[in-house]
Amino acid sequence: MEKFKITDLDLYYGTFKALIKVNLTIEANQITAFIGPSGCGKSTLLKSLNRMNDLIEGCRIDGNVLLDGEDIYGNIDVNLLRKRVGMVFQKPNPFPMSIYDNVAYGPRTHGIHSKIKLDEIVETSLRNAAIWDELKDRLKKSALGISGGQQQRLCIARALAVQPEVLLMDEPTSALDPISTSKIEDLISELKERYTIIIVTHNMQQAVRISDKTAFFLLGQVIEYDTTENIFSNPRQKETEDYITGRFG
User: Fold this and answer.
1) pTM for the full model?
2) Cα separation of 121 and 163, whole Å?
3) 170: CATH
4) What is the tally of structural domains in the chain?
5) Which regions in the chain score pLDDT beneath 70?
6) Is position 237 within any domain?
7) CA angle, corner 146, sides to 143 and 150, nearest 5?
8) What is the per-residue pLDDT for 247?
9) Rg (CA), the chain
């Protein structure tokens, strides 16, 4: 079942055309990876899926982006959209507050103030992010005092706390050590049972390990989009093959 349907999407920053006629269908409860050289449009498209690019002056979009058949650039509540489509950034960005308050921040923003309910949400979210056992005795401590890998899983828990349908991940392991990276990858693989996940990565091995489908971007265009196995074992486009074999990128 399709979650996102992107049709003829062009995106401009002023006069610069950053995305060119992007057409993609993102399936529900799958992990879709965006790969390609730096500056090719991967993160730009990712941020377009919950309208983060609205915050950039001079950004303009033509085409359609449908979430469950609804145009996200039409008459839609952007706050509700961002509740449905959560975002995890490249660098862990916990708020300068306690671990508990980090996870409870979103639910409070959406009107939940019952301590019993918040306690339940915090525990469930941390469990779903596979970090409850590590943090359950430190909930009142500052989130800035835990390791980078723990901070990133805390940020995932914070995103999960508002019960999104989609998780967007912009190179979520690029700043982490190999052990933390492995934990995040295992977590992402588990989460796809409940969420649709779209991940930007420069690490092709990571795309192979965790994604179901892969889109290869080059100069603002989607050059190839297929199952990850087909992309990496038998790329149809020469540009994709060159990237995979390291001849550019």
Assistant:
1) 0.94
2) 10
3) 3.40.50.300
4) 1
5) 249
6) yes
7) 95
8) 77
9) 18
